[in-house]
Backbone:
């Protein structure tokens, strides 16, 4: 049972444009959502998070949007840079329970 | 801030060997540490959750006698893969958090190859 889904395994975006990564979830009890970035042979790096009481959180070039009614969150990266090329995982959690990860989306930023 | 160090980064050993992987939180106290396994092109699979000073909680299907976890202090957790076999070859990643409402921070992972 995949509670957190990233339906796009890959995404290519031109440098300078906006990258939008999407994530859907099925468990309405999730109350905390996170995005991680991962390079090959390295552990994931925390990017940004959002609590279920908010619908938007912004940190520099990264903005996460949460649509609770649609059980959907997205990560916007503006402007996209070559160093943003990586695999992005969304994750969700209910209270103190374990994080549930999506399958990841490989983002490639083209010069 | 929030640095998690994992050691070693790469291990190659013979079948039957036991391998210990260390996970340290360098600049914060980790009340909870997590151990994950990642297969190629797949997501992170949680193996177990450990709280300092107590026994680890293992996910369904993970053999606790095979994967020994010790969380002896607020900055160190270890995963020992006992009598490792080729099917245990994988990328193991630890993470730590300082509190329930805090994000998890990950180590750089350990690539384990069993010959």
Residues:
């Amino acid at each position: 049972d995949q509670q957190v889904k990233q339906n796009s395994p890959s995404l290519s975006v031109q440098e300078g444009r906006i990258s939008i990564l999407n994530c859907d979830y099925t468990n309405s009890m999730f109350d905390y959502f996170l995005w991680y970035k991962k390079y090959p042979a390295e552990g994931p790096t925390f990017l940004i998070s959002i609590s279920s009481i908010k619908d938007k959180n912004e940190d520099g070039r990264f903005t996460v949007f949460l649509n609770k009614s649609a059980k959907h969150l997205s990560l916007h990266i503006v402007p996209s840079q070559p160093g943003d090329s990586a695999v992005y995982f969304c994750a969700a959690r209910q209270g103190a329970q374990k994080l549930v990860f999506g399958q990841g989306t490989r983002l490639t930023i083209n010069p | 801030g929030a640095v998690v160090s994992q050691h070693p980064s790469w291990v190659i050993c013979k079948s039957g060997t036991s391998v210990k992987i260390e996970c340290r939180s360098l600049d914060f106290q980790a009340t909870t540490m997590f151990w994950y396994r990642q297969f190629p092109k797949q997501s992170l699979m949680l193996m177990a959750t450990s709280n300092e000073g107590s026994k680890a909680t293992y996910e369904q299907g993970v053999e606790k006698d095979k994967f020994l976890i010790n969380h002896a202090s607020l900055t160190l957790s270890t995963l020992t893969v006992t009598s490792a076999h080729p099917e245990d070859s994988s990328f193991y990643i630890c993470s730590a958090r300082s509190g329930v409402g805090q994000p998890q921070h990950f180590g750089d992972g350990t690539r384990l190859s069993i010959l």
Summary: Chain B touches chain A at residues 2, 4, 6, 34, 42-44, 46, 49, 59, 91, 93-95, 100-101, 103-109, 111 (CB under 8 Å). DSSP finds no helices and eleven strands in chain B.
